[in-house]
Specification:
The protein is built from 2 helices and 9 strands, in the order ααβββββββββ. It is of the alpha+beta class.
Length: 136
């Protein structure tokens, strides 16, 4: 799969983010909140297309990599390109995890775990509120 390099970093004021995002999108993307399991719009959606960042529109995940992990959030085995996401060490909530962020706007997407299907063995557990689906 050929992908373009991510566009330049998106920088906005908190007021701009608040005016452009829904309250749930803002809470997830800007404040690192987590939507309740099994409540997100894309948890059980498997329509063909691309999932883009709800904050900046950068393509993040393909429906071809989406699978039903049963965890309550949309799960993907890989991003569309490694440069579209960033990862950070997360020790919040008494756990050690790897946080997944949009590399373009630095919005919080969710976390990645090493219990996914082959060939990557990864499960990108992503909040629906952090995504928008662009149909194929």
């Amino acid at each position: 799969m050929t992908t373009k390099s991510p566009a330049a970093r998106v920088e906005k004021s908190e007021q701009e983010w608040r005016s452009e995002l829904t309250p749930m999108q803002y809470a997830v993307l800007r404040e690192k909140a987590t939507e309740r399991p099994f409540s997100g719009e894309y948890d059980h959606s498997f329509d063909p297309g691309t999932y883009v960042c709800a904050g900046c529109g950068q393509p993040l995940f393909s429906s071809d990599e989406k699978f039903d992990s049963g965890c309550g959030w949309p799960s993907f085995s890989a991003p569309v390109a490694s440069e579209t996401i960033a990862e950070e060490h997360d020790t919040s909530h008494g756990m050690i995890r790897t946080e997944v962020l949009c590399a373009r706007c630095h919005g919080h997407l969710g976390h990645v775990f090493d219990d996914g299907p082959g060939p990557t063995g990864l499960r990108y557990c992503i909040n629906s509120a952090a995504l928008k689906h662009e149909p194929k």
